Known about the structure:
- By secondary structure, chain A is of the alpha/beta class.
- The first copy, chain A, has a single domain, classed as Carbon-nitrogen hydrolase (Nitrilase/N-carbamoyl-D-aminoacid amidohydrolase, 4-Layer Sandwich).
- A 6-stranded mixed sheet of chain A has the order 5-4-3-2-1-15. A 6-stranded mixed sheet of chain A has the order 6-7-8-10-13-14, with helices on one face. Chain A has a 3-stranded antiparallel sheet with strand order 9-12-11.
- The longest helix of chain A has 26 residues.
- Chain A starts with a strand and ends in a 21-residue tail after the last helix.
- The interface between A and B is large, with 56 and 56 residues.
Amino acid sequence: MDKVAIALIQHSCSEDIKENEEKALNMIETAAKNEAKIICTQELFKTRYFCQVEDWDYFKYAEEINENNETIKKLSKISKEYSSVIIASLFEKRAKGIYHNTVALINEKGTLAGIYRKMHIPDDPHFYEKFYFTPGDLGYKVFKTKYGNIGTLICWDQWYPEAARLTALKGADIIFYPTAIGWLPEEKEEYGESQYNAWETVQRGHAVANGCYVVAVNRVEFEPSPDGNSGIEFWGQSFISNPYGEIIKKASVNKEEILISEIDLKMIDETRIVWPFFRDRRIDSYQEITKRWID
Amino acid sequence: MDKVAIALIQHSCSEDIKENEEKALNMIETAAKNEAKIICTQELFKTRYFCQVEDWDYFKYAEEINENNETIKKLSKISKEYSSVIIASLFEKRAKGIYHNTVALINEKGTLAGIYRKMHIPDDPHFYEKFYFTPGDLGYKVFKTKYGNIGTLICWDQWYPEAARLTALKGADIIFYPTAIGWLPEEKEEYGESQYNAWETVQRGHAVANGCYVVAVNRVEFEPSPDGNSGIEFWGQSFISNPYGEIIKKASVNKEEILISEIDLKMIDETRIVWPFFRDRRIDSYQEITKRWID
């Protein structure tokens, strides 16, 4: 099976978690009905992006990720009915006092095939994730599915060539990045375009360097900061890049969208034969990449 | 010193080595006269790109790289007179039977500060470099100069995020890539634009991921293959990317050019504070990057 339709679920979130979940489930089901075989949510799709502030109260949103989780059950039902793989980004409570920013992969049989826990955790104004999320300890993950080998990374991971490379080295045909990124209104005019372009460029670069597809799924709309201190205007523009780093489909900047596109996995083999980057890696010379800085 | 003018020397090459060298030296001197303080040549600037074929005869072009090398002496003279750093790409004869694709860095005092030997060696139709060049064994290099910390990589290296990362981790403010890349006429119509864009994108991605400047210096014009078998149309378009991955200056596709631009090294500090990617690298999780493939 070389051609597979994938779907990116881009939407806004209100303060009503139930409403967000229902909306996302409806969009996922619509995508599945329309023959999408791999469907990916945006990051933390059930809630507003609560990491804009550090508030203990938000830990209530976290949930155990297993077959008994209510959202997983609902997703599994859709997954099984339409034989679609679903990648869902959730706030995981792993233990009392250990929380992760996690992706669950439900395979085309409706089975929870496994999880990935965000490895790189940001901490910047309006993105206080180090407060909520313990850095992942499962390493990089690839799930072999009926529709291809799926690599999963999350948002801040997308700035790290090491994460993309290690996921590709594990065999990923497509790397999915559920994301929550946007403009701070006070910066947008001066830096907005540069920030957006850098985000898109670095991910397209991963696609080129690794000869694979890269998919980013972002949310839309302005979410005010709960402390009344400005907010984030999420920049949407979820996209799919082919192994040449070309954007083959991109969602709008401000509208909810089910972005569906057929991709051709044969292109991975073809690109890597013509540009055999993996053949020539100098693996004898990369040891120091495990250093913080080479003084 | 935060602001520094850099120059990219983009030109064509004939079969006459003396003529090529004189042209390049003139362009370098003109750049230096115009206040360029870091000047970089294209890859193997003294000759046509002879790697289009495997021919023992071309080893005669190789030379020992040291203070007594005639080209180094001429470059040192210019360097010293104008207090400019020069990065020169040369075919190195290291020993009988050991040849490298090498960059020499001459500092602003006219001293040969050191060399870098191309680590990643391609071998593809019209780019038979594995025949000529032993892979580098000096690792990744950064030269601390009066005008900033200069990282040097060469052409095929530019597809490898590991090379850019390791050079950045050694403190590079600017990574220079002398290059010889172009279109094969038989592929240009179908793949030409994609190939060019992938090349530019992956390097802009290195600039973003590493928060540094990236500079690529390429040659121009069509060079026929010595075996009469088509040839390469070098695509010029030497460029400078800032730490946001934005191209701040780019040369034409087919003209000889001395591309001079002032860059602001303060932007590196500023970008890395706002986007602290180095802070959050998961160096505990990158060990397997030294594997060929993770089976």
